[in-house]
Amino acid sequence: MDIFPSETESSTEAELLLLQADLQTWIDQVCDLGPYSEQDLPEAAECRARLDAGVPLLPGGVRPSRAAAQAALQGLMKLLRRYLPDSTQALDILERSVAEAGGASALLDMVLGGRGNAMLGWARRGGVADDLAVFHAVLLARPFRTWFARRLLRHVEAGMWSHGYCPLCGHWPSLGLLDGQEDGRRYLWCQHCGSQWRHPRLRCVFCATEDQSSLSVYSVDGLAGWRIQGCGGCRRYVKEVRLQQRREDAPCDALRLGTLALDEAAMDVGLLRESPLIAHHEREAPPLGFHAPSLRKASHNEKPLDGPMTGRCQ
Amino acid sequence: MNITRRGFLGAGGAGVLGAAITLFGLPPRAEARRRKPFKTAETKESTTICPYCGVGCGLIVSTRDGKLVNIEGDPDHPINEGSLCSKGMSLAQVAVNERRLQKVRYRAPGSTKWEEKDWDWALAEIAKRVKKTRDATFVAKDKEQVVNRTEGIACLGGAALDNEECYLLSKFGRGLGLIYIEHQARI
Question: In the CATH scheme, what is the code of domain A175-313?
Answer without folding.
Answer: 3.90.1670.10
